[in-house]
Amino acid sequence: MSLPKVALLAARQAVESMYDCKCNVYEYGKHKNQNTRTTEMSEQCVLEEQPCRISFSSLKTVVQSESAANIGQCVKLFISPDITIKPGSKISVLDKKNRLTEYKSSGVPAVYNTHQEIMLELFRGWS
Predict the structure, then answer these.
(1) pLDDT tens digits for 7-44?
(2) Which InterPro entries would you find in this protein's record (predicted)?
(3) Which of 41, 53, 54, 106 has the fewest Cβ atoms within 10 Å of its own Cβ atom?
């Protein structure tokens, strides 16, 4: 059984009211250089200033090494379900304190009626 459209719209507005960041999305691939008219591999901005929210949580599993235990961190992006972000895209997030952090989408997003969730990892360069 699905929710009525009014309830779905209200739920989506509630989720989007919590967005407190903006992000730009970049893809790396073949692009035509308009000056030289050649095809080059480059970074291209495909989405600008999209409202979003970042969530941080610690992973419950602890990886034990010889020197110390490491606890991992899970970073998740919440954004509109109408947007398509390809796995491996670079996502620059400007948070509410005007800090810019670059991430890489690390897989296929979980898309819901009200939002989508994308697991992120720190961007360390194009593979």
Answers:
(1) 999 999 999 999 999 999 999 998 888 888 899 999 99
(2) XkdH-like_sf (IPR038667)
(3) 41
Residue 5 to residues 10, 12, 17, 21, 95: CA-CA distances in angstroms? 9, 10, 18, 27, 31
For residue 103, which of 82, 89, 114, 116 has the smallest C-alpha distance? Answer: 89
pLDDT less than 50: residues of the chain: none
> Among positive and negative, which fits the CA dihedral 103, 108, 112, 113?
positive
How distant, in Å, are the alpha carbons of 14, 92, 104 from that of 123?
Answer: 30, 9, 5
Its CATH class, for the domain covering 5-122, is: mainly beta
How do the domains of the chain map onto residue ranges?
A: 5-122
